[in-house]
């Protein structure tokens, strides 16, 4: 009679010939062969909509063979109102792949306005997640001085790191990086004393190059009130990237992106952990800036993609930027996808030559100057036009594409349309009135190309407690914007 025997072999635990590994995948290419997504978790917002309801986490069925396909099958309301759920991350991801004791169990939900951080248990029932723990803002402020939490990434150590955009009063000078232990207890700040960035927003680390790079949105005291161009002139918004030692937390270089890099938001390295190349999407100037490691070990940057502003009539300015609010990179590092929230289009670029991206696909899924709106776009000859946007299942598409998420195999792109409730109300008041939605875009991952899947539509305007706004999306098994390889 045989018994289970554990032996350590090549850094993994082997049980009866089967290797027991940590969460995620050994490599980005291996992840591409992972199972097809069947569920997506979506952060949904009532904050700022005047409905007197808490934000919630929606579980959406994306299995085309399921009778509840493209439907919300579960809603987990938060225990408090006024949070403004925004981005999300995991307690553990592919960076912990070599640790068989680690598990991708808890979805981490930072609340941008209230400062609370929720840990959601997705393991007990992936279709109906439940609340595990709440990190209260008073605890964070007392121990670190940090507030306005945004991006959460798991670390190979089992800790969770969260970028925070300011202090409790909304001053950018108080921003930095919060460190939680594996059970969501506040440990302190990650960065060394005196090494906090100018502004906070997103971050990504590349351990083989001992580097973390963070981006800079702006002061919470400014962006929480809505977008005001005077705040940019007054220096309340960012235009820098901060280069840190990893995992040391020392600020070793600040890259000034200048007037071509205003409001740098999402930042991503290429997925290949050996590569010292990445991109950041600069929203206001609508450029994708490529950053790279120089031979001397310093970091440089250059504009890789420019989305030209469009001359418009009947809008707040004579020219409208695309406003790149999200982008991502396919797991094989072949394609980059970006969302122009104001123009209303999603674009696909081939980045096999990272310094020279080539536009290979584009689809309009909304925008300020779509047909039926009052805003007109001007062509070079002075004539005006509006963009045709397809209806999906009888629904006119509202707002513009904001957050995007790609399937592991790179063949399906999902898009939601809420940026931040205050900005939604300012630029797309119809979103606050009628709610958001989620779309699926079919992707040609061979030659390039994008097309709306007319069989998929999740209408957050038809929610039981009234229309809600939809933002970040996560698969239970990880994705190309949550997982980092070491």
From TrEMBL:
GO molecular function, one term: selenium binding
SUPFAM superfamilies assigned to the protein according to its UniProt record, in alphabetical order: 3-carboxy-cis,cis-mucoante lactonizing enzyme (SSF75011)
Species lineage: Eukaryota, Viridiplantae, Streptophyta, Embryophyta, Tracheophyta
Name of the molecule in the record: Methanethiol oxidase
Signal peptide feature range: none
Naturally occurring in which organism (per UniProt): Anisodus acutangulus
Entry annotated with the keyword Repeat: no
Superkingdom: Eukaryota
Keywords linked to the UniProt accession: Selenium
Family per record: Belongs to the selenium-binding protein family.
Record flagged with keyword Ion transport: no
């Amino acid at each position: 009679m045989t018994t289970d025997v554990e032996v350590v072999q090549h850094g993994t635990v082997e049980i009866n010939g089967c290797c027991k590994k940590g969460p995620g995948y050994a490599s980005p290419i291996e992840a591409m062969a992972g199972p097809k997504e069947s569920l997506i978790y979506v952060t949904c917002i009532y904050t700022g909509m005047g409905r007197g309801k808490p934000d919630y986490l929606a579980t959406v069925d994306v299995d085309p063979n399921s009778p509840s396909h493209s439907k919300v099958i579960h809603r987990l309301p938060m225990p408090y109102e006024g949070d403004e759920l925004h981005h999300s991350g995991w307690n553990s991801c592919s960076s912990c792949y070599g640790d068989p004791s680690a598990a991708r169990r808890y979805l981490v939900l930072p609340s941008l306005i209230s400062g609370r951080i929720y840990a959601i248990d997705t393991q007990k029932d992936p279709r109906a997640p439940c609340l595990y723990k709440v990190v209260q803002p008073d605890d964070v402020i007392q121990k670190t001085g940090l507030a306005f939490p945004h991006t959460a990434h798991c670390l190979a150590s089992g800790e969770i790191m969260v970028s925070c955009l300011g202090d409790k009063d909304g001053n950018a000078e108080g921003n930095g990086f919060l460190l939680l232990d594996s059970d969501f207890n506040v440990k302190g700040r990650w960065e060394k004393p005196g090494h906090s960035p100018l502004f906070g927003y997103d971050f990504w680390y590349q351990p083989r190059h001992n580097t973390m790079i963070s981006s800079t949105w702006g002061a919470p005291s400014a962006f929480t009130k809505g977008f005001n161009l005077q705040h940019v002139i007054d220096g309340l918004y960012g235009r820098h990237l901060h280069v840190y030692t990893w995992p040391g937390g020392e600020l070793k270089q600040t890259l000034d992106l200048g007037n071509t890099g205003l409001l740098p938001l999402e930042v991503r390295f290429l997925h290949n952990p050996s590569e010292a190349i990445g991109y950041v999407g600069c929203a206001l100037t609508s450029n994708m800036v490529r950053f790279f490691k120089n031979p001397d070990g310093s970091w440089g940057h250059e504009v890789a993609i420019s989305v030209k502003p469009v001359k418009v009539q009947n809008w707040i300015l004579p020219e409208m930027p695309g406003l790149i609010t999200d982008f991502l990179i396919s797991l094989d590092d072949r394609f980059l996808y970006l969302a122009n929230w104001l123009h209303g289009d999603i674009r696909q670029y081939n980045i096999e030559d990272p310094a020279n991206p080539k536009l290979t696909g584009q689809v309009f899924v909304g925008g300020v100057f779509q047909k039926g709106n009052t805003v007109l776009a001007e062509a070079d000859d002075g004539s005006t036009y509006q963009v045709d946007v397809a209806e999906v299942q009888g629904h006119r598409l509202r707002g513009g594409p904001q957050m995007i998420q790609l399937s592991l195999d790179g063949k399906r792109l999902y898009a939601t349309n809420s940026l931040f409730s205050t900005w939604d109300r300012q630029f797309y008041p119809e979103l606050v009135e009628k709610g958001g939605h989620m779309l699926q875009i079919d992707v040609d991952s061979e030659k390039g190309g994008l097309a709306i899947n007319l069989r998929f539509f999740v209408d957050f305007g038809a929610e039981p407690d009234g229309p809600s706004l939809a933002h970040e999306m996560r698969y239970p098994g990880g994705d190309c914007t949550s997982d980092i390889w070491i």
